[in-house]
């Protein structure tokens, strides 16, 4: 069975000041089209009263705060994760191999690990590279691991680092992943997921990355 995605303690949406409030908002969200598609609404990128009601209902169900119908990055990330849980590789974008492959989908900001067709970890939400620091795509390989790594470049902790391409690595971050800005090229995971991934991957395991982070 796939590794279940651990629940985030609290999901707080990012939004402009004018959209904050308990009542449903008429403002078009930063991820309007993506959320409309995932919630099976009319995909036009424009917030309607019906859209707002449906998005707010989803936010209430998933405990996203504030539940006001704004389609921001947190709402989008949660909807992508739920849609992918049963079969993250339904589109066949990650090559199926006999050996372990860590699959990183930048289009959906998700990653999982598979061996043959069996998913052994995930899918889970990630945060990839922002403009100017894009996460490099293609085939990679885990070449170095450090459970208690500290970045001397950015002077910040990188727990459970598993490096796959130059200075780019899987590693844990503290706080929410679904933010308007991305990482500096690494594939960020929650602390709980990075810790679990540490026990799933080994030095020499292959990594396949494709797509492009929305907005990058």
Order of helices and strands: EHHEHEEEEEEEEHE
Structural class label: alpha/beta
Q: Give the uncertain stretches in residue-range form.
A: 1-8
Number of strands: 11
Largest sheet: 5 strands, mixed
Strand order of the largest sheet: 5-4-3-11-6
Give Rg in angstroms: 17 Å
The percent range for strand residues is: 25-35%
Distance between the termini: 33 Å
- Give me the number of helical elements: 4
Q: What global shape is seen?
A: globular
Please give a structural write-up:
The protein is of the alpha/beta class and 216 residues long. Helix content is 20%, strand content 28%. The strands form three sheets. A five-stranded mixed β-sheet has the order 5-4-3-11-6, with helices on both faces. The longest helix has 14 residues, at 49-62. The radius of gyration is 17 Å and the shape is globular. The two termini are 33 Å apart.
Compile the SSE list and pairings.
Blueprint: E1 11-12, H1 32-38, H2 49-62, E2 64-65, H3 73-84, E3 100-105, E4 110-115, E5 118-125, E6 138-141, E7 144-151, E8 156-165, E9 168-173, E10 187-190, H4 191-200, E11 206-210
Parallel strand pairs: 1-2, 3-11, 9-10
Antiparallel strand pairs: 3-4, 4-5, 6-11, 7-8, 8-9
Helix pairs in contact: 1-3
């Amino acid at each position: 069975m796939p590794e279940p995605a651990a629940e985030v303690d609290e999901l707080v949406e990012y939004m402009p000041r004018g959209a904050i409030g308990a009542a449903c908002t008429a403002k078009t969200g930063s991820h309007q089209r993506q959320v409309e598609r995932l919630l099976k609404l009319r995909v036009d990128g424009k917030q309607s009263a019906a859209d707002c009601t449906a998005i707010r209902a989803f936010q209430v169900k998933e405990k996203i705060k504030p539940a006001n119908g704004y389609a921001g990055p947190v709402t989008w990330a949660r909807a992508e994760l739920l849609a992918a849980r049963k079969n993250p590789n339904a589109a066949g974008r990650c090559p199926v191999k006999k050996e372990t492959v860590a699959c990183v989908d930048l289009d959906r900001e998700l990653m999982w690990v598979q061996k043959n067709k069996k998913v052994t970890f995930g899918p889970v939400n990630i945060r990839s590279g922002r403009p100017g620091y894009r996460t490099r795509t293609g085939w990679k390989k885990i070449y170095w691991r450090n459970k208690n790594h500290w970045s001397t470049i950015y002077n910040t902790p990188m727990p459970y680092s598993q490096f796959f391409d130059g200075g780019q690595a899987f590693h844990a971050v503290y706080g929410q992943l679904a933010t308007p800005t991305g990482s500096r090229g690494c594939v960020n995971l929650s602390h709980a997921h990075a810790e679990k991934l540490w026990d799933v991957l080994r030095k020499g395991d292959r990594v396949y990355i494709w797509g492009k982070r929305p907005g990058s």
